[in-house]
Every structure is written in structure tokens, then in C-alpha cells.
Write a structure and sequence with these properties.
The complex is a heterodimer of chains A (633) and B (161). Chain A is an alpha+beta fold. In chain A, 36% of the residues lie in helices and 14% in strands.
Amino acid sequence: MTAFGGYAGRILRIDLTRNTVDIQDTADLLPDWYGGRAMAARIAFDIIRPGTGAFSPENPLMIFTGPLTGTSAPFSGRTTVCGLSAQGHPHEWYTRSSFGGHWGPALKHSGFDGLVITGRAPRPVSIRIDQGRCTVEDASGLWGLGMYETQKRLMDGPGWRVLAIGPAGENLCRIAIIATETESASGQGGFGAVMGSKNLKAIAVRGTLPLPVYDPERFRLVCDLVRAEAHGSHGWPHEPKLDPHRVRMFGQKFQACTQGCAVRCYDARFYTSVPAVLSPGRKLSGQMDCVAGLFPGIPNSFYDWKLGFEAGFEVGQIANDEGLNHWEILIGMVPWLRSLKDEGSLKEVDGVPIDVDDPVFWQHLLMGISRREGRVRNALAEGTVRASHELGVGGESMDRLFTAWGYAGHWDGHGDHINYVFHPYWIVSALQWAIDTRDPISSAHGYAQNIMGWSRICSPVHGLSWERIKEVSARVYGTTDAADPRSGYGAKAIAAAWHGNRSVMKDSLTVGDQVFPRIYSNRTEDNFARAGDMEGPTFERHMFNALTGIGWTDAEMDAASARVLSLERRLLIRNFGRCRADDESVIPYFQRPENLVNPFIGHPMSLDPQAFREQLSELYALRGWDDQGKPLS
Amino acid sequence: MGNLRLCVNPVPCTGCMNCAVVCAQGRAGDHVPGASAIAVLLDPFGGEHGHVYCRQCDSPACAAACASGAISRDPLTGAMVIGYDLCVRCGACVSACPFGAMFWRDDPGLPVKCDLCSGAPRCVAACRFGVIRFLSPGDPEFAFRGMPDSEQDALPGRGEG
């Protein structure tokens, strides 16, 4: 046990080569490395040597909860995966990827804050952790199974939660996921392939062990207040409704994409009865979250293929079961294939014509990628960016769709056409992308998505005026420039630095990214989020302090999070030679015209390289890094 | 005597587990899943989550099975409550409950049941989806069945709270 509340107190270190299990005291890392991503960074810096690759047995697959995971803190069921990434490009950079569901709380209640898995088992294995006991079991009979069947076979009764890979992970697809339930996935990063490279098929956990709370009364009060303050989906001002047609036809219902969720969500929907198209006569059930809503196609949009709901749902379930990354497929790969077809450089995929309106094509594509069948699909299993190089096609469209590091665009105003963001807000996204090793938005929705969602562009009825958004944001960033639609490059580094620290905080505590940080509100007169004696941006810290007893101030929590980013940066410099030139490699992507025009400007904007470089220098300075992006301490 | 009871409509349940988690926290202070007096049986592949909770029966089998007379009705809330000063930890009540809603907490080894939080159930407050409500059995919206429809309904087993 640790001296602090909220922690299980032990970290499991499993070497699959030697078939050994060791215990590390969580207390070794506290309080500085205060949770999931922070703990993983500390361990990674110590044990990942230069020259180690994503598929090296020495690459640690680190799966961590945080102090809030498994408690009554709202939106706190998430788990963070860290290690060298298979998807990373041009290097298999160190990165992270989190998932929801109910697995993390079960790990905590089984007595462990996290797992550090190294080595490579001589044959397929699974790990079973039950009330503090860990066993490594033969999984030869599970190898080749889809994710759903794998989980079902390992759920020996109530309370078991299973994390698994599908055939994509087994076959080292660089876009393979690790997932639990039907659609809670560590999607980006290719960690499914890292897990597959260790011959590790699944991790089953069960536990009902207690977690200590430092100040139970205060913690209960704080959690109740934060839960009651929760607004709509994504922390936005309005709550979505179910689609009556889909309720009637397919059993649509709201679903918590992670334990502790307390809102109706645009993204997380469960369907209990969807007629299959590719397998007539079958009824399918499962979650359809977030970007998966694009599988059916959306008329009059960039993603206007015509699978229809039933076929789209079924294709999405295939992607889940095979263990493939939805974002890569829907935002990057399929639009890229469609552009290749349009320009005539690729007309078919291993004998099947590219037809994105045909579910048979999608099935052929996805199942062939996960099983590495055929020349094109085997190349695509390397991720679209590597496939483009290998196949020698589609470089120009690749540059339009994929922002950096092997990842398709996301809230950056260019490659991703589903999120509404315009200049100057995507400048902050550009800064976030520049210093990261993956799509940074998974734990950084709090800036662009928050502002756009609270604006009257996205929320005409319940949204806020731009003047009010500026006033509220000034309380957070110290200047109205950070959220002013007319502010250009002003203060964008400040926002990028602030949200970078919040990204670490969310991945470390853990809490849901779509909801935190809470900034804007329609329940206070000045529209600044508050609950009880707490201001919105401090909710996470108040929960953390009441739970753990660590008692940090905002500045101390911020400094602890910034320390994690600096340590991750030092690892990248030491192991991969990361430098400013790497960071600036995102500039050409953002020099293209934006997708959505700022109404105060009236014409499409693109990145000004010089102004961006100045902001990048300022971001380095705010991080305590030198002008080449090297941490000074 | 209070006559409000928990009323569960499982259809809109999202599986967030807030009801079970806040119940455990409210009862034990720490986060002890075994301390929860309501359980959610997650159905991750079918999406139809089940709930194990006390009906505060008119003729409670738990009280009838308790030889030491430790289970009695709270005159203020109408909830059946355990008097731990009389409870001998025999577990007969746990076996007797037809709904599986009398739970056994391994550490320190005692039965756990819903006491309606002295008339303000925390699970109801924590549920944002109207799955768990606190209603009079006479309320038209009350879905109280009184007795199980089948043995399978009656004995869902130890929950997952």
C-alpha cells in the first residue's frame, strides 16, 4: 500500500520471455509520477534503451490506470497504454493511447495500478489476474479468434473484464488495436501489434479489493458536485437525443463508453438488434462510437459513401472483431483509396474493384488487412502512410489527409472533415501536433472542440457569444487572445501549453477527455464552470487531492504534468534524435487552405510558417525547453 | 411510514455503474465494490444490463430467515435494515432472498443490503438516465413486480457491483 489514497499500491511487471512476474511498489513513483501516463513515462525512460523498436521484446507494453480509476469520480473508467508504437512514422516513437470500458476499474480492484509487460512468449498466451493473483496461461486455442469471441471465452463469470487483440494484432498490423467489450479501444498507436509481437492474446482481470480514500466525505462531496455539474455530450451545452427510427428498428440506446460516464453522448450508442447484410439472417449488436458513425457514410459530406446503416454497422463490427483502428480506416485509408481510384492510380485492391459503396469491398479490405492477404492489403497493414511508400502511389493525397507521424488529421482543420474548426483555433492543434508523436487530440479535445462546441456556430440555441467565450477563456489562459476568433497567432502557444499539461493529467488520473477540463457552463451567470467551492478547471485536482491526500496546488499539479512531457521529450531526443526540424515538419500540411472558413475572416486561411515558428519557440519556452526543443532540466 | 421504493427500468441503462460505485462509497467510505447494495450485471455484447436490488418486500424472506431477529423495517423509510448488533453473520438472509439482493461482503464477513440511504438513495441521485427511480408502489410508473416472473429472474446471482 502507499501512503496515499486511490492507489492499489502495486505494479505488475511481467516478463513473457522468462515467464516471471515481479511486483513493483507504486510508492516508488509517488507523488511525482502520480498516475498512468506519468508512471509509464518514468518507467519507460529507465528501461527503453536506444535502438529498441516497437516489436523488440524489450519494448514494454505498459497498461496503466490512475488514482481516480475505479472510484466514484465521474468519467474515470479509462486506462492508458504506453510504449514504443508500431504505427509511429518515420520512427516507432514512444507514445500513448487510452481506452474506456470497465477493464481499468477491474484491474485496480484486482490489486494493481498497472502492468509492465516485456519479452515474448514462446507460444500464444493470455494473462489472468484475479484478486491479486496473476497467472500466464496457454492461449493457443484463442489465436486466430476475433476480439468478441476471445473475450467471451475468457469471461468465466460475473465481474471478469477482458482486454484482447484480434487477428490484426496477431499479424502485426501497425494499425491494430487493443480493445475491450465491443468498442472501447486503445485505437491509435498500433499497440495491438505490440501486444501481438509478444504472443499475448488477452488479459482478463477480476477484482473486488478495496481502494483507500484519504478524505471520504470530501471526496464524496466533490464527486457528487462534479457529476451534477456535467453538461451534455463532450461537455457541450446541449444534450443529444436518440433517433426514434433507430430506436425502433435497431434498438438504439445510449451507452457509457467508460465507467462513471454521466451524460447522454452524441458518440456512444449501443444497438441491440441490427440485421446483417453480409451475413443475411443474423442480428448484430454492439456499440457504435465516435468516428465509427462514419461507416454507413454521411450524405453530402466528404464521407458520402453509401453503405447504409445496416451494412455500415456490420462493417464496423468486422473492424472491431478483427481489431483494426477505425480512425485510420475512416479518416485516412478509405478516403485515400477513393482518391487513388478517382485519379486512376489504383483501381482495385487485390482483385476487387475499389467501390466504397459496396460492403463486400469493405469486408474484403478489412479482413485482408488484418490477415495480411494480397499485395495491397499486406501493404495497408503497415498503415496507410507506409503503404503509400511501399506501393509507390498516392503521395499527394497522403499529404492532404495525414497530418504527421503516420496519423490522419484530427481537429486540425485540414485532413479531417468531420470536425468543425477554423483559423485561428487549429493553430493550437498545429502546435500540439508539432511536438507530439501521434495524433495529439485523443486527450486534447479541450481547446478547439470546446470552443467550437460552445460557440453559436455549433450550438445556435444554447451556445455562447464570442465575447463571452473570450471572457471565460481569459480566466483560464490569462488573455482573451487565446480564444478570440480574430486573434490570429496571439497566445496560441499559451493555450497549447495549458492543454498539453491537461492531456497528461487526463491520461494519468484517469478521466475522460471529452468532458474535462470543464471551462464553459450554462449553469452560472458568467458562464464559467463552477461547482461548490471549485472552479471548473480545478475539478480534477480537487478529486485527486480528496482521494489521495497529496494536496497539490494548481501550480504543483501543472508542474507535475509538465515534468511528464519533458521526460517523454528527453526519451525521444535520446532514443530517436527528436529535434526542432522534426517538429517543424508539420508545417507543409498546415500550409494548405483550411476546410472551414472563419466568418470573421471570410476566406480560407493557411499556416504562416514564420508566425508559427515564433509560437513554437514560445511553446518551447513555456515548457522549459530550449529553442531546439530540448528540456533544460 | 415512508413507502417509496427503488424502481428500475433497465432499458435506458448505459452501464456506467455510477449507481453501484456511489452506493459502495456511501456505505463504506472507501471504494469497496463488495460494499455495494446494488449490482449491475453488465452485458457488454448484448447491451441489456441487469440490476440486482432490494424490493423492500412486504413479506421479506430475508427477515423470515433471520433467526436472530436482526432484520427489521425502518419505521421512517420503510426499508428493511440490518441491525448489525444482533446479526450473527450466518448468511441465512443472503441465501433466502429470492432476488439475490442480499449481498455478502467477504471482508469483514457480513451481509449487506439496501437501506434506502435513510430515505435519499444515492444510486437514484447518481443515475442521469432515469434507470433507478424512487417511487411509491402506487405510482403508475412503478414497475414493481412484487415477485419474480421466473426462477431465472429471481436468482440472478451475485452481482457485479
